[in-house]
Design goal:
Layout (H helix, E strand, L loop, with lengths): L1 E7 L5 H10 L4 E8 L15 E5 L6 H11 L4 E5 L3 E3 L4 H5 L4 E5 L13 E4 L8 E7 L15 H8 L2 E5 L3 E3 L13 H16 L1
């Protein structure tokens, strides 16, 4: 069973579709929404036996939201997903057979093409872009340092856990600048990412 963790500021309608495909999958034990802007939450999104909404008084940013979601999770298998994409939940059985840090990355060749030949291969060098969906075991989680707010969370995980790339799976998303998430592309977050870069270089 998986705990699926999704930080959100409700900047993309694709989160509604993602929640629909997750809610009925038997391998998804719980969905943990870290709601960083509850003023924008659609009225139809309410807690259920599977959907937990962790409302924040103010934006805690994406990396702390990942840490919080893992801390609150009830299952050993963890998925951390962006809120502006829909991925194929049929890959979950294959994920369970692989140990390490599985990444669906925005630099993979199948990102917009919807290829169907699924493969999992070790990542030997950083040429695949940013991760937008991760799978790992909770016991392997090493909390992201608190000074990293919006960037380098994936770099931190990759530096600590054996990474592999998941390709050939269907991934629906919305193209936007730099291949980043719609939230991370905003100017205010770009400024924070520059500060994160300085902090990352100190680690």
């Amino acid at each position: 069973m998986f705990s699926v963790i999704i930080p959100t500021m409700w900047c993309s309608n694709l989160i509604l579709k993602l929640l629909e495909v997750l809610k009925d999958n038997p391998l998804v034990g719980e969905i943990i929404l870290i709601d960083n802007d509850s003023s924008k939450r659609p009225p139809q999104i309410t807690p259920t036996s599977k959907l937990r909404i962790i409302e924040q008084e103010q934006n805690i940013y994406v990396n702390p939201a990942w840490n919080l979601g893992v801390q609150l999770s009830n299952y050993e298998n963890i998925c951390i997903s962006n809120d502006d994409l829909v991925w194929d939940v049929n890959i979950l059985p294959l994920i369970l057979e692989n140990i390490g840090l599985g990444i669906i990355g925005q630099g993979t060749s199948n990102y917009f093409e919807g290829e169907t030949e699924l493969s999992i291969t070790p990542i030997t060098e950083r040429n695949w872009g940013w991760g937008c969906c991760f799978f790992l075991q909770k016991q392997n989680w090493i909390p992201i340092p608190p000074q990293l707010l919006v960037a380098y969370g994936d770099d931190w995980l990759i530096s600590k856990i054996k990474p592999y790339q998941i390709s050939g799976t269907i991934l629906e998303t919305e193209p936007h600048p730099w291949g980043l998430s719609r939230t991370a592309s905003k100017s205010e977050f770009v400024k924070i990412s520059f500060k994160d870069e300085l902090e990352w270089n100190k680690l």
